[in-house]
Design a protein that fits this description.
This protein is of the alpha+beta class. It contains 12 helices and 5 strands. β2 and β3 form a beta hairpin.
Length: about 250
Amino acid sequence: MNTNHWNTKIQIVEQFDGSTKMLSENSMGIYIQSETNDALLVHFKPLNQKFNHKVFNTNAGVLLNFERDLIDEDDIEYALDVFALFNKFPEFYIKQKEQVLQIQQLINWLKGEFYSETTSYIMLKTLLKVLLLHLIRFQNADFLKQDLNQKRIFQFLELMETTFLYETTTEYYATQLGISSKRLNQVLKEKLNCTAKQIIQQRQITEAKRSLIKSDSTTKEIAFRLGFDSISSFSRFFKKNVGVSPSVFKTEH
């Protein structure tokens, strides 16, 4: 199988800077940066977001960029764990020597398979999954050390991922987190530069695009599944955020 065929779903970039083009806005990114003290600094780019600008201060690392489809093809529990990995906090250090060596070995295997003349999509996907599972395990060990507001962001994003189809108000999520809507928006603006409503709408747009491209659902079915009371209100919402109507978007893709 030709490597370039899989560049539409996964890419590995070893000279990464601000001009590097992601696969799509619906892709996820991990930048693993080597530190001088034999540690790794791991940066995450969740769906519909960008890397922190300080990621571009060095190119001593490797970018793994992949489409959400690679995660959704597996079971829902794994997908939720991956989304949690990306949303808990934008970066974390791996300092234990054994853990550093494990991640470096997995990266080398991924690069070897990616650049092989006989690249296997299944092998790439499997190696990526093993890498993500290692990162999930290492990150969970650090989670208790994070500040309260960062934990609130994680809790909001995790809850939203499982309920956004039927809960779209800031008040609902604030109540579940035990804080006011104003405080929730303050925390999200400080850390992610978005309000709760904006993040929920980004998630709705991502799901709408995915459904239009990947499923046989009609625009009407997608609109009602996303909680809109009419096709016209969904179409206005979609066109405002994407620039074209749902039908045009589906045709173009």
